[in-house]
Amino acid sequence: xxxxxxxxxxxxxxxxxxxxxxxxxxxxxxxxxxxxxxxxxxxxxxxxxxxxxxxxxxxxxxxxxxxxxxxxxxxxxxxxxxxxxxxxxxxxxxxxxxxxxxxxxxxxxxxxxxxxxxxxxxxxxxxxxxxxxxxxxxxxxxxxxxxxxxxxxxxxxxxxxxxxxxxxxxxxxxxxxxxxxxxxxxxxxxxxxxxxxxxxxxxxxxxxxxxxxxxxxxxxxxxxxxxxxxxxxxxxxxxxxxxxxxxxxxxxxxxxxxxxxxxxxxxxxxxxxxxxxxxxxxxxxxxxxxxxxxxxxxxxxxxxxxxxxxxxxxxxxxxxxxxxxxxxxxxxxxxxxxxxxxxxxxxxxxxxxxxxxxxxxxxxxxxxxxxxxxxxxxxxxxxxxxxxxxxxxxxxxxxxxxxxxxxxxxxxxxxxxxxxxxxxxxxxxxxxxxxxxxxxxxxxxxxxxxxxxxxxxxxxxxxxxxxxxxxxxxxxxxxxxxxxxxxxxxxxxxxxxxxxxxxxxxxxxxxxxxxxxxxxxxxxxxxxxxxxxxxxxxxxxxxxxxxxxxxxxxxxxxxxxxxxxxxxxxx
Length: 571
Ligand SMILES: Cc1cc2nc3c(=O)[nH]c(=O)nc-3n(C[C@H](O)[C@H](O)[C@H](O)COP(=O)(O)OP(=O)(O)OC[C@H]3O[C@@H](n4cnc5c(N)ncnc54)[C@H](O)[C@@H]3O)c2cc1C
What we know:
By secondary structure, the chain is α+β, with helices and mostly antiparallel strands. It has helices at about 10-15, 20-25, 45-75, 90-100, 120-130, 135-140, 145-150, 155-165, 280-315, 330-365, 370-410, 420-430, 440-450, 455-465, 470-495, 500-525, 530-555, 560-570, and strands at about 80, 85, 170-175, 190-195, 200-210, 215-220, 230-240, 245-250, 260-275, 320, 320-325.
């Protein structure tokens, strides 16, 4: 069954009302139609072309990527002479997506891209992840082209982006043994050679996905004697120049088809991308935000796959004379899995629309002066993209783990066996809340939007939408949840204690997320009653969670922090 056509969520989110504005801006009022015969003539034509491509992707997922997933997981990539060979199935997947022209698709046509907005682009990531989350990493690293487009100079854009659009692979080389969550500690050395008029990179990177890629974006220390983020710059390393070898591939729990490499840079020739010293503070932050949206899509795909595996097994497996799906303990799990997958997908596309609006207006602002109204939009969507990306990545990746866990549980002993797909999903999901910033680091990024009220203001906007009368009770419950969330925030911030704020941060972020996810599902149901089940189930669950967090926060005595901290001493 075609992955794009077999789920109501995809078309539903693709046809959101804001898409008209996004596509008009992205297509600059369809100006490309006179230059490229494949450019859309109008909005309908553009939407039609996205659907056609998504249908092709849905077919490739079903016919090629999903059937290869098991052998790829078993075989994995290998390394010899400092370079990586993919598993045979991975290579077949790559050939299929290259042939279908699915590389660099969000890039402008003048660099050989298809100029797709983020929404359909990220929908491909959602579909591919459902088929094989590990393969999504290789396909999704084309995000790096986005960063090159945003911050590279015109010469770099012309040299590298068409290569990415032709299917050459990319990697983002940030992490080092002593620089993980704290990227300010990166020490890989970049030194400028006057004689050769170029930069050379020396040092080690670890945990680099697809580290033997054709084109790398590398974070390195260009300012000698510095130790913080202001001494870091971003560089482009082209594999054709040589100087980087893969020392080893990690032997890991999941996403086994995706090579995670330790890299040795030995006088690797590289070029500066953007300005010196802005590597971490500006460029890598943008790169990671793109990648976080990608991991959100990976999480949604995994949540969907886990639900489907759980549902299929529960419908077939009989115990005590009936299918196990008849037992409340099992159907409750499944209903919540469906609701979490739908809520995660709603969050993914809401965030993608914000990112689309921000990016396209930001891009236009480099071509012409924005109108006052456009400037306001740029500010609004920039803030929302910044706020929704960490809370969305944090929550959806946790839900991918929970859904995969429940899928194994529904399978009973069989779920522990390699014979069933849920076993792989469980292992694959485990990385989603670790890389591109752990959930704890997403909370660090999200907390200022709790204290400054970005989330609350957006939730109140959702509150003011006109909902159908039959949704009145759900709406009312969401308003109650929001009130409790607001009181919880107030209680924590009134104490004016940063340690307490950090301690309660995850609870506050999760409470905000339950309100947001609930409202997004309510809006989905407002348009299409088929989301009603998920809205009912999610809001029931979310309200109980918000109440739990409210109780915890309002009953918490700041003196108790000492007991939690005490562990540090007693261990
Ligand atoms: C399979 C895989 C693929 C990867 N791919 C890439 C890649 O392509 N490119 C790349 O550059 N990197 C990549 N990484 C690295 C990844 O992004 C890091 O592993 C991740 O950011 C966490 O860093 P760390 O492993 O050093 O953990 P640490 O930073 O040591 O964290 C350990 C624990 O401490 C917590 N912690 C740390 N700081 C804080 C804080 N301030 N507040 C609260 N809690 C905190 C963390 O949440 C975590 O629980 C990959 C990693 C893996 C495992």
